[in-house]
């Protein structure tokens, strides 16, 4: 029998994270495009981000029809690296002048994100904005494909913190932090002890 799951955060009910999820307002709208494979992943950080941000939307699929209706009335940017990608600071300066920004955030591995852009030319054609280089993820459980790769929720928090100071969006990470701690616990004490022994606790 599968364990009953919370309908909101999709965690097993015994490990529901909803009490840790904030309800934050942002001027920037966040549109997350999630590859269906990611919905089954234990650390489904995109869902936690969508639950915590009032001005956000999570779409699940590979091909999105009528995608442009989701950014009507906004100035959309694709949060994804590219040769012509602007920095978040440049986007911030630009929006001091015109329109409400909307960030389209692909959620999935690099390979799946690229496939998503290939299948959705309107998304691929959006102007791109990239995260600052040198970020490191708090999340050591899933090997990052490249230095500077962070989870979807960390990417969104970094972007909003840069675009909307002095508002700080770090509380969005609270359920994510707890999720990681629980995953470490689930990995077992022996693995944890072995890692600690490597740090050399000598008296």
From TrEMBL:
It comes from Pseudomonas asuensis. This is tRNA-uridine aminocarboxypropyltransferase. Transmembrane segments: none annotated. It is an enzyme of class 2 (transferase). Coiled coil: none annotated. Its EC number is 2.5.1.25. InterPro entries: DTW, DTWD2/TAPT. It comes from the Bacteria. It holds the Pfam family DTW. SMART domains: DTW. Keywords: S-adenosyl-L-methionine, Transferase, tRNA processing. The keyword S-adenosyl-L-methionine applies. Residues 2-188 form the DTW domain. Belongs to the TDD superfamily. DTWD2 family.
């Amino acid at each position: 029998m599968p364990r009953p799951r919370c309908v909101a955060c999709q965690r097993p009910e015994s490990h529901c994270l909803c009490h840790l999820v904030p309800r934050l307002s942002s001027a920037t709208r966040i549109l997350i495009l999630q590859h269906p494979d990611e919905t089954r992943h234990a650390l489904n950080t995109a869902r936690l981000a969508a639950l915590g941000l009032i001005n956000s939307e999570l779409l699940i699929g590979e091909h999105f029809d009528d995608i442009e209706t989701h950014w009507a009335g906004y100035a959309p940017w694709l949060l994804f690296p590219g040769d012509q990608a602007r920095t978040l600071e440049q986007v911030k300066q630009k929006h001091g002048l015109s329109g409400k920004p909307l960030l389209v955030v692909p959620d999935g591995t690099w390979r799946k994100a690229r496939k998503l852009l290939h299948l959705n030319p309107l998304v691929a054609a959006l102007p791109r904005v990239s995260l600052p280089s040198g970020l490191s993820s708090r999340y050591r459980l899933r090997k990052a494909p490249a230095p500077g790769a962070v989870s979807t929720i960390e990417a969104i928090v970094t972007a909003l913190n840069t675009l909307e100071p002095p508002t700080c969006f770090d509380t969005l990470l609270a359920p994510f932090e707890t999720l990681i701690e629980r995953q470490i616990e689930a990995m077992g004490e022996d693995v944890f002890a072995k890692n600690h022994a490597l740090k050399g606790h000598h008296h």
